[in-house]
Amino acid sequence: MSDTVNRSGLTVDARLADLVETQVLTPLGRDVSAFWDGFAALLADYAPRNRALLAKRDELQAQIDAWHTQRRGKPIDQSEYQAFLREIGYLVPEPADFTIGTENVDSEIATMAGPQLVVPILNARFLLNAANARWGSLYDAFYGTDAVDAPPAKPGGYDKDRGDAVIARARTFLDETVPLASGSWSDLSGKDAVKLKDESQYIGETEKGLLFKNNGLHIEVVFDPESPIGRDDKAGIADVICEAALTTICDCEDSVAAVDAEDKHLAYTNWLGLIRGDLEESFEKGGKTLTRKLAGNKTYTDGEGQSHSLPGRSLLFVRNVGHLMTNPAILLEDRSEIPEGIMDAVFTSAIGALDVEGHAKYGNSGHGSIYIVKPKMHGPEECAFTNDLFDAVEDLLGLPRNTIKVGVMDEERRTSANLGACIEAVKDRVVFINTGFLDRTGDEIHTSMQAGPMVRKGEMKSSAWLQAYEKRNVAIGLKHGLAGRAQIGKGMWAAPDLMGQMMIEKIGHLKAGANTAWVPSPTAATLHALHYHECDVFHEQKGLGEIPPLDDLLTIPLAQGTNWSEDELREELDNNAQGLLGYVVRWIDQGVGCSKVPDINDVGLMEDRATLRISSQHMANWLLHGVVTEDQVMDSLRRMAAKVDAQNAGDPFYEPLVGNEDHPAFQAAKDLVFKGVEQPSGYTEPLLHHWRQVKKAG
């Protein structure tokens, strides 16, 4: 550990102590000694409770493992299975009818529907790009992606043919979304000729354009006859700007490699800069130094001549880590590491209090709320712990009750099976539930690891449990009153280069009742925003409501026989091994927790730690049940190491895997598979943190 200071019996990294004392507590007018005394008391109460919850996870898993081991090879009778799960406390009784009571929720979460970004908190440039993705150029998004059905832009400057196709597609969007009283936007002669079919869609005039609204989202049509694009346009239209990423999750968890005090200091410093409004990042591009800052608000004048402004930035959540990991940044009185989730709750909330109490340049929440996403909670007991913890943090910081809001990620099987009770445990502060295929599949495999070999990974997407999981999440959320008060979200579109396909498929998330869904980039957010103009989510939600039965959710995706051919086995292993190595090598060697990683077919996928959990657990499951051998796994890892080396040949910071099997990255990949059965809930964090610390230590 680097330089430390003693604070109320806690051994605290000196940089972290200085950050919170001088840049957070002092501007807030809080007593520094009282804060540390209160923090130490909070830890004395909550750290043992945290440990007890993790022990409960292990105890339940051991009982489930034993049950499956005794019955291995026999069909699973759902009534017997569920009776067992109730007996051990894995399943709890459904709560009586209730409606969430969350108050002071910003409209971006409660009453609007639109895209959501998730961005690694360690990367200031990405954070600024995401925060500024509230507004996006539709022309740029169409021109630079395959979302327009036209030949790609020819190199060497502006391609007019491509540009014409982009403009035509944007005009079609305007005709469909804000239709004119007569004729098409393509025939428009100029700004003064704009007369809408529905005048209520007109909001006002901006500096260079007209502002409209549809399904709660704004569209700005920019008229600038002097600009290079507007000059050649009959109407003088230079761009169409869409309100896009309504919300952004600044991620301390799966998309970052944060293993020590140095990493946590950077995470909290970046969060502080975002909340305060002064985060900046300079970088080189095209031989020039560019500096990125947060965008200001968008101003307009309404039809009565009154001035107004709209937020120029995405509303920010911060995702804390789950209950599992500890961190050496702070040591408790017994010299054990602090539970990282508790540290995140206190530090990110203290920083968020600067916004609540008016110490922010722009302001994040207009309703005085702090928005925290809490991942990887197992069941209502752990949700209740988070609720109590947030109560204690509010008391520590002198904040009104339920200032801290919570987003519950439905990505663990015990949470899915008890979702109503989980929501009830946080019913006065919940603002978000969502689903996530990768982590949820990882836990599906690990929970039933001893039951038998699982289906191939690709088959999981059509399995009964997954269909039930996605539908139950929305239906249970609607049953308990989330519509109009909270977000119901869906997972990531992982392929940032396949925007054309995203435009075809991702509208399905809206039709399933989700009023937000994750996208991998600001460009993707601009394009995905078009889906929310096409589909009124809140109207769709009214037609939903039937909750699929628990039997479907708890149907374990076991393979019917294991007579796969040698080619099929090799294909499955290679797919898992390549994804594993491609991600691990960046995490361990470079500390990159989220990046575009080529898959086995060289398609770039935006991956975070969840992809490791599903791949490593799947390989561990097949190894456990003798579907594949250790030799086959090692053969696959070695061959895929060569492929990953080739895929990263152009990266000057890349350290090859071939001939380097003692290297921490290859060792981590091996451990994730061969020690996969014994990892808590199949999580990858303990092994990744160990090998990253080995790497950082040189």
Relevant CATH superfamily of the domain at 566-696: Malate synthase, domain III
Rg over CA atoms? 26 Å
Please estimate the helix content: 40-55%
CATH topology of the domain at 566-696: Malate Synthase G, Chain: A, Domain 4
Query: How many strands?
Result: 23
Class of secondary structure makeup: alpha/beta
Enumerate how many helices there are, as a single number: 25
Low-confidence spans: none
Order of strands across the main sheet: 3-9-14-17-18-19-20-21
Largest β sheet strand count, sense and barrel closure: 8 strands, parallel, barrel
CATH architecture of the domain at 566-696: Up-down Bundle
What shape does the CA trace take? globular
Beta-strand percentage range:
15-25%
Q: Mean pLDDT, rounded to whole units?
A: 97
* Distance between the ends: 15 Å
CATH class of the domain at 566-696: Mainly Alpha
Protein architecture, described:
The chain is of the alpha/beta class. Among the domains are: 137-243, Malate synthase G - maily-beta sub-domain (Beta Complex), CATH 2.170.170; 566-696, Malate synthase, domain III (Malate Synthase G, Chain: A, Domain 4). Helix content is 45%, strand content 16%. The radius of gyration is 26 Å and the shape is globular. The two termini are 15 Å apart. 49% of the residues are buried. Acetyl-CoA binds at residues 118, 125-126, 255, 292, 520.
